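Researcher: Quick test of sequence recovery. Tokens follow.
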């Protein structure tokens, strides 16, 4: 599973989705789906724009979480 940390980053920086959409020209719906982690796909140019605007690395924005490991840990 891929975890998106956009909501955490925006919260820490006190930014709103509407500000991000206006400043980056990324569709507000796209940003909302990333914020709520309901996006099923992301264009590379969106990731590039977000990383540039937020001055962050891709691994700070997105994280791979192995759901098998999470499931195994809860079984113990």
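Model:
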């Amino acid at each position: 599973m891929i975890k998106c940390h956009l909501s955490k980053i925006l919260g820490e920086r006190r930014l709103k989705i509407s500000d991000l959409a206006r400043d980056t020209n990324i569709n507000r719906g796209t940003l909302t789906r990333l914020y709520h982690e309901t996006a099923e796909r992301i264009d590379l140019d969106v990731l590039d724009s977000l990383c540039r605007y937020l001055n962050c690395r891709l691994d700070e924005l997105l994280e791979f979480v192995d759901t098998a490991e999470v499931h195994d840990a809860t079984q113990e």
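The first helix runs from residue 6 to 13.
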